[in-house]
Write a structure and sequence with these properties.
4-stranded antiparallel β-sheet; 3 helices; Nuclear Transport Factor 2, Chain: A; alpha+beta; about 130 residues
Length: about 130
C-alpha cells in the first residue's frame, strides 16, 4: 500500500475546526442594511454596497418594494475567509415572507460593505429553505 503521508489526516474521524464567532458589528450592519431596504431607502442601501454589487442591491430593492415588510430574522450565516454571508427572512408584510442572502466584507476604509446579494424569495435551490 502506498504511503498516504500523515496518517492522522486520513484515518478515523477528522478534526472539526473551531467555530469563528462573527464580529460584534456584523449583525448591526446587516440590520441597518435590511432596514433601509424594507423602508424603500434604495439610495441608502446602495451607499452600503460595493460597486460590483450595486445592480444586485438595486434589483433586490425593486423586488421587495418599500414598506412591504416590518420585521427581520437572521437564520443563517457563513464565513469565507474574511467575508460573511447572512441569510434573513423578512416578515409582517401583506404577502409571503421574503428571503434574502447577502455577503458582507470590509471595504478599503474599514467599514462593512455588501459585496453580493440574492433575493431567494420563491426560488428553489440549494440555497433556499
Amino acid at each position: 500500500m502506498p504511503d498516504l503521508g500523515n496518517r492522522a489526516n486520513v484515518n478515523g474521524p477528522q478534526p472539526i475546526g473551531k467555530v469563528v464567532e462573527p464580529p460584534a458589528d456584523l449583525y448591526d450592519t446587516g440590520r441597518r442594511f435590511l432596514e433601509r431596504l424594507m423602508k424603500g431607502d434604495k439610495p441608502g442601501a446602495l451607499a452600503m454596497a460595493a460597486d460590483d454589487a450595486r445592480d444586485d442591491v438595486a434589483a433586490a430593492a425593486d423586488s421587495l418594494g418599500p414598506n412591504s415588510y416590518s420585521e427581520m430574522e437572521f437564520f443563517g450565516r457563513a464565513r469565507v475567509v474574511k467575508h460573511w454571508w447572512l441569510k434573513a427572512r423578512l416578515t409582517k408584510g401583506g404577502g409571503a415572507p421574503a428571503i434574502v442572502q447577502f455577503r458582507l466584507g470590509t471595504g478599503a476604509n474599514g467599514e462593512w460593505m455588501v459585496y453580493e446579494m440574492m433575493n431567494l424569495t420563491g426560488v428553489r435551490s440549494g440555497w433556499s429553505l
